[in-house]
Specification:
The chain is of the alpha/beta class. It is about 40% helix and about 15% strand. It binds 3-methyl-2-oxobutanoic acid and zinc ion (ZN).
């Protein structure tokens, strides 16, 4: 089966950077933008240029250094925002303006005190105005997750007619279930007459822990761009995690979908973002957490030592991790102790291992984790070295 291409739109430097305490300075944004470019992302959303002079400058400088990816700037459906974004993006080899407006009844009534018709008019005017500066214009229908599908289809058709090349369908509040979000994308694929002229994009938030599942449901139903961040950082509970969606496509060739991402750079990129933002990655985070390839229960360790694939569906090398780790705790078995002792030069007979294991459990009950440095002492106390 031929593989279809899904574009990766990275918004670490925009939605990710909105997180309290995660603000990046211009230099940090430039370093991370170069890294994201090398990682193979297709679009880098570098910031929201009208938001501050510093962000304007950061987007401007990022536009100068990015070699391959499209550089994108966010705007509201406001002329001044669009003018400022176009100016900030001027040095980019390939620039995209990302403009849009809320489309759910909640946003229309409470935020804009407007009507559905007027929202379409404002969106249309914004897209047309953005088109006077750049060819590549993406429109976001904010809170699309809670927007009625029939109206959303009308919005999408109007934006394509106005010149939008990409239609972003954000689940801004992270409300949708995967079936619901997938069905929304499917509905748009079937009910927007000019959909063949544009690409649908998934932008999912993680308020219910469903951002990755929703994005995958979106691409299964025809979307061809995912908006995501490294480590899944972003407003509130975060955005779709780049490393997760990329590895899902890679580990499931049956989906017939592929990306440009150099997966061997994922682990180091995650660390760079975590260091720059001062935001620790939770140890059990899929793909890039410290425990993603660590095995600690005796049953699992025995399996992994015999054959890694018994308990690992991803080869750690594929995401830039040197090796799986066998962690020694009071829940570990003999196989793990023998394996770790052998790694540091102690080959134990069955009898020696039995003795050493009894001593190991006494040590391990006292300490959370047994390190390589503890092993010689355990063996000495057990009288086997
Ligand atoms: O979550 C959202 O709706 C957004 C838009 C501004 C794209 O971040
Ligand atoms: Zn968002």
């Amino acid at each position: 089966m031929g593989q279809e291409f899904v574009q990766i739109f990275d918004t670490t430097l925009r939605d990710g950077e909105q997180v309290p305490g995660c603000k990046l300075n211009k230099e940090q944004k430039i370093i991370l933008a170069k890294r994201l470019d090398n990682l193979g992302v297709d679009i880098i959303e570098a910031g929201f240029p009208i938001s501050s002079p510093g962000d304007f400058d950061a987007v401007h400088q990022v536009s100068k250094v990015v070699k391959n990816a499209v550089v994108c700037g966010l705007t509201r459906a406001v002329e001044k925002d669009i003018e400022v974004a176009a100016q900030a993006l001027k040095p980019a080899k390939r620039a995209r303006i990302h403009t849009g407006i809320g489309t759910s009844d909640s946003h229309i009534q409470h935020k804009f005190r407007s009507t559905r018709e007027k929202i379409i008019e404002r969106g249309t005017a914004a897209v047309k105005y953005a088109k006077t500066f750049v060819e590549d214009v993406e429109f976001y229908a904010e809170d699309a997750g809670r927007t009625e599908n029939a109206y959303l289809a009308q919005v999408c058709e109007a934006m394509i007619q106005a010149g939008a090349t990409v239609l972003n369908i954000p689940d801004t509040t992270g409300y949708c279930l995967p079936e619901e979000y997938g069905a929304k994308i499917n509905y748009l694929m079937e009910h927007v007459p000019s959909i063949h002229k544009a690409k649908l994009s998934c932008h999912c938030h993680n308020d219910l822990g469903l951002a990755t599942a929703n994005s995958i449901a979106g691409i299964i139903n025809g979307a061809r761009q995912i908006e995501c961040t490294i480590n899944g950082i972003g407003e509130r509970a975060g955005n779709t995690s780049l490393e997760e969606v990329v590895m899902i496509m890679r580990q499931h060739p049956d989906l017939g979908l592929t990306t440009n991402i150099q997966t061997k750079m994922l682990s180091e990129t995650s660390q760079m973002v975590s260091d720059a933002m001062g935001m620790v990655v939770q140890p059990n985070k899929a793909i890039v957490g410290a425990n993603a390839f660590a095995h600690s229960s005796g049953i699992h360790q025995d399996g992994v030592i015999k054959n890694r694939e018994t308990y690992e569906i991803i080869n750690p090398h594929d995401v830039g991790v040197d090796t799986s780790s066998i962690v020694l705790t009071a829940r570990s078995g003999r196989a793990a102790l023998a394996y770790r002792a052998k790694n540091i030069g102690f080959e134990l007979t069955k009898d020696e291992l039995d003795k050493a294991y009894a001593t190991f459990l006494v040590f391990a009950d006292r300490k959370k984790e047994i390190n390589d440095d503890d092993i010689p002492e355990i063996l000495k106390t057990a009288g086997v070295s």
